[in-house]
Design brief:
- Helix content is about 10%, strand content about 40%.
- By secondary structure, it is mainly beta.
- Among the domains are: about 110 residues, Methylamine Dehydrogenase, Chain H (7 Propeller); about 100 residues, Immunoglobulin-like; about 240 residues, Rossmann fold (3-Layer(aba) Sandwich), CATH 3.40.50.
- A six-stranded antiparallel β-sheet has the order 42-43-44-45-46-47, with helices on one face. Strands 51, 53, 54, 56, 57 and 58 form a six-stranded mixed β-sheet that branches.
- A hairpin with a 7-residue loop joins strand 25 and strand 26.
Length: about 950
């Protein structure tokens, strides 16, 4: 769903993206911050697959279509049409061409600009919007692509019937308006026949030339919702939106010949029906029990009596799609995606990555000032956590007693929970028709209260008079008011916690965290944001182009220099002003709208998941500069590491181009194994989102079977030229880590080459030379590990590592800045590992106190896709990193040495130490050593696999 956080600071982007033409004006809308979690964040309304069962498309209320590989379950691409305010852009229907080349979608699409709805046809391999078919009179409820690929049928809302389009030129070739209710059910038979079901209670059959064959009143309910042809095309199944019945109708007369036994079921409906390839009947829908959630029922016997219950989703099942191998796909409102094979084994169970705030009316708890909030990451309050806005910290476990639940009893408010008729002292409260009240909180002074509904956050006086209402991007499962009466805080169905100024409902801050609590991002309406390591691209900017073009989407990291403003986010809650920390205050400079947008690059061929057997592989791609600025480069990365000797931008124009024009080019990339290829384009300082392509190698095995080398640069400074900066163990940390890595020689590494810089050796010049050395020395098959221990600090929002000869009054001239460290690490051709334990400045005394470095910002900068660096940091946020004499090391280095020395007990007998395994060990062990005061973190770019970096010796 739209996050509802519009930007004023980015308003000039609209001028860059929209021009004077009518088509562009139609799609004109302010750039919008939206969630991007790698999964849908709202109910999945529909799903479709290609004839070969390779590609799955899912359409959601969150205004995206997502394409998935059925072989691996991974997300391949996100399709983004133009979106607008409210429901504009919500997608209700999707279909895939039999050959898997094209995807068509629609819903509430285009109405905001044309007073008519549109269908969008995308190329599956590239995500390019190829065609828009406009002029449809109502919302698109259902789409079906004929098995021969020639036709697409459309079911419309209202009394508008169905339409059929010829895919050769997308002309409408057939319409039937003789419907008095919405059409939700459409299905093509292999023979080309078409069946339709409408909320007027009728089921209709058309022949392959769309001539009406039969029409019958559905026998099992008033709202037939879905229809499906049996594999032998002898019958159709019908599911209903208003009953639990499922009917089987004979063809061609649509006479009921069977009905599966559902007599022991109570409540709900079975709106979705499908047939497996072997003739089993499937049904699911809003039927739900506490024990099983929403199952899928399967009948295999001819009498349709013996029923098998298959575990599926927690929410309503909204789509069933058969697969050619005899299995099937289901999608649900959770949102969730599942796949069963022909043996009735669930082989894919992909759930939402968002926190689930259902059942948490009394679990959403606030501190008196509202800047600390407690809740559960799971439905009903499971996995309890708390978040401190000022400390920028997500904490786990039980919370202190000063957190208070919402007061829902001190005023006579009735029927406020899950009803459309909430009342105060028996009198109805003003809400919209069909709007459902979900949650309630009464102000501490009892002079007012707020209702959280399906659509709005509403404040009323204690006499029931409306005070203000604010639209919400999802249902308000829980709401609370701070003890000082300044803030209203809401937990929403999209997985966000949002702070509003209680006086007038002004949005202040939104917080999103994934379901396991590992990543979070927090932002204000004007764009400034804060994020945990690996969390910043959980949101991004959606920018409409025109109705006839796919929208652009940029993760917020693409504008990190302008909008990464942690202090602005904290100040918004403290000051009740979302703009105070970002508009000209002394605290944080005002973010300016970028003069240049990042470029957009996409890979044209091969397709994701293709197999290749010859090297080099030709990769065709296209590049576009949305703001018309000159392209300055294209980088190629394989498994996250840059190939610096490939001039990918050769042949592309070096001149500025019209903003909507695309250039095509190709590059030959050497390949000898399965790999993820990434292309990144540059326009000045702006860097595109990475275009990723996973290829499967079927050629000859790599000839070079030699083990890689490990290059180590270990830097530790305990004794500084300035005695006020002294530390105890940084030098020892560097020396012992270097020794432990040297011991890896002869194992997975044929050679380990170490450069050690400690204390007086770690001058600025030597640190710079060491970084240049490791960047030059490491080959593409090698591994480089850089370890830094000592002081780090921030100045002018930039991180600096302090070498031995630093002058803290002249940091820019005498310390090593974040940008230069990152540049050298990004130049490494092999795998680049960066360990840094440079957060001790909080313990410095004697007048030399330094600003605590912002570790989150450094980690997110280094691990952007274009850099390809795996980072292990000793702490998060602005935490102090601890060292103790009893350890002889800093906590982070002690835990790292224990892992390398074979003392870690998490590897369960395995000898390999992988990135993920080391991350788990360091996190758990450092928290234990420091009594939960220090929280190490690690992040790796998407394209880098969970590689083995050491082995137990």
């Amino acid at each position: 769903m739209i996050l509802g956080m519009r930007i004023s600071a980015l308003a000039v982007l609209v001028l860059l993206v929209t021009g004077p033409s009518r088509a562009e004006q139609q799609a004109g809308a302010p750039p919008v911050l939206r969630l991007e979690t790698g999964m849908h964040t709202a109910p999945i309304r529909a799903a479709a697959v290609d004839a070969g069962g390779r590609l799955l498309a899912t359409a959601s209320f969150d205004k995206t279509v997502r394409l998935w590989s059925l072989a691996t379950g991974e997300q391949l691409r996100v399709l983004r049409p133009a979106i607008g305010s409210g429901p504009e852009g919500e997608l209700f229907a999707v279909a895939v061409s039999p050959d898997g080349q094209f995807v068509i979608t629609g819903g509430w699409t285009g109405f905001q600009w044309e007073n008519a709805n549109s269908l969008y046809v995308f190329e599956a391999a590239t995500g390019q919007l190829l065609r828009r078919i406009g002029g449809l009179p109502q919302v698109i409820n259902r789409l079906a692509w004929s098995p021969n690929g020639r036709y697409v049928a459309v079911g419309l809302a209202g009394a508008n019937g169905i339409r059929v389009f010829d895919t050769a030129d997308w002309r409408q070739i057939f319409a039937d308006n003789d419907y008095s209710g919405a059409v939700y059910g459409l299905s093509f038979a292999r023979s080309g026949q078409l069946a339709a079901a409408g909320f007027d209670g009728g089921v209709r059959l058309y022949d392959a030339d769309f001539r009406p064959v039969a029409r019958a009143k559905a026998p099992g309910g008033g709202h037939p919702y879905s229809v499906a042809f049996s594999p032998d095309t002898s019958v159709i199944a019908v599911g209903y939106g208003d009953t639990r019945n499922v009917d089987i109708l004979a063809l061609p007369d649509l006479r009921r010949v069977a009905a599966p036994d559902v007599s022991d079921l109570s409540g709900g409906s079975l709106s979705q029906v499908a047939w497996t390839q072997d003739g089993a009947l499937l049904a699911a829908g809003a039927y739900w029990t506490e024990a099983t959630g929403s199952p899928v029922f399967r009948w295999a016997d001819t009498g349709r009596v013996e029923r098998v219950r298959l575990v599926a989703a927690d929410g309503t099942v909204m789509g069933l799609v058969p697969l050619p191998d005899g299995g099937f796909v289901y999608v649900s409102a959770d949102p969730a995606i599942g796949v069963y094979n022909a043996r009735r084994e669930r082989v894919l169970d992909r759930r939402s990555n968002t926190a689930d705030f259902r059942g948490q009316l009394d679990r959403l708890r606030l501190s008196a000032s509202g800047d600390r909030v407690a809740f559960g990451l799971q439905k009903g309050g499971g996995n309890p956590v708390s978040f401190d806005v000022e400390a920028r910290r997500l904490g786990f476990g039980s919370v202190s007693r000063d957190f208070r639940p919402a007061n829902a009893t001190s005023l006579p408010i009735q029927d406020w929970r899950n009803t459309t008729m909430p009342r105060l002292a028996g009198k109805p409260l003003a809400i919209e028709k069909n709007e459902t009240s979900r949650s309630l909180a009464i102000a501490p002074d009892r002079r007012s209260f707020v209702l959280g509904t399906e659509w709005y956050l509403r404040r009323y006086s204690n006499r029931g008079a409306p005070v203000w209402s604010i639209p919400l991007p999802g249902a308000a499962w829980a709401v609370n008011i701070s003890g000082d009466g300044r803030l209203a805080v809401v937990a929403l169905a999209d997985g966000t916690i949002r702070w509003y100024r209680y006086q007038d409902g002004r949005p202040l801050v939104a917080l999103f965290m994934d379901r396991d609590g590992k990543r979070w991002v927090m932002w204000t309406p004007d764009g400034p944001y804060d994020a945990s390591p690996g969390g910043e691209d959980l949101i991004g900017w959606h920018i409409n182009r025109t109705l006839d073009h796919e929208a652009d989407f940029f993760g917020v990291s693409r504008f990190r220099d302008l909008y990464y403003r942690p202090k602005a986010v904290a100040v918004a809650v403290r000051s009740l002003d979302a703009g105070q920390g970002g508009r000209g205050t002394a605290l944080v400079p005002a973010p300016a709208a970028p003069a240049v947008l990042p470029p957009v690059i996409r890979i044209l061929s091969p397709r994701a998941g293709d197999t290749v057997s010859a090297s080099p592989v030709e990769i065709r791609y296209s590049v576009r500069s949305p703001s018309g600025e000159r392209l300055t480069g294209v980088d190629v990365l394989i498994d996250g590491r840059r190939l610096s000797d490939l001039p990918a931008a050769r042949g592309l124009s070096a001149e500025p181009l019209p903003k909507d024009s695309e250039q095509e080019a190709s590059i030959a990339i050497p390949l000898s194994k399965d790999a993820t290829i990434s292309l990144v384009a540059r326009v000045g300082d702006r860097v595109s989102e990475a275009a990723n392509l996973r290829l499967i190698w079927k050629g000859m095995a790599e000839a070079d079977t030699r083990k890689p080398r490990l290059y180590v640069l270990a830097i530790g400074v305990s004794r500084y030229n300035d005695p006020r900066l002294a530390l105890d163990f940084a030098s020892a940390d560097a020396g012992d880590v270097a020794e432990a890595l040297k011991a890896q020689e002869g194992g997975i590494y044929r050679e380990v080459v170490v450069k050690l810089l400690r204390d007086k050796e770690a001058t600025l010049r030597n640190v710079q030379n060491g970084l240049e050395w490791i960047a030059r020395a490491t080959g593409e098959h090698d591994v480089a590990a850089v370890f830094m221990a000592g002081h780090g600090t921030n100045e002018d929002q930039k991180y600096y590592f302090l070498p031995f000869d630093v002058d803290i009054g002249r940091l820019q001239q005498t310390a090593e800045p974040q940008d230069e460290i990152r540049q050298r690490l990004a130049e490494i051709q092999g795998t680049a590992l960066f360990f840094f334990d440079t957060c001790q400045s909080g313990s410095v005394m004697g007048g030399a106190r330094l600003a605590q470095p912002d570790i989150n910002g450094v980690v997110n900068d280094f691990t952007s896709a274009e850099n390809g660096i795996v980072v292990f940091a000793a702490s998060e946020g602005r935490e102090v990193a601890y060292e103790e004499k009893s350890w002889g090391h800093g906590a982070f280095s002690k835990a790292l040495l224990e892992a390398l020395g074979g003392k870690a007990d998490i590897f369960s007998g395995r000898r390999e130490i992988t990135v993920a395994g080391l991350e788990f060990w360091l996190s758990d062990r450092v928290r234990q050593l420091t009594k939960d005061r220090q929280h190490p973190t690690s992040v790796k770019p998407y394209a880098i696999r969970d590689i083995t970096i050491a082995e137990l010796r």
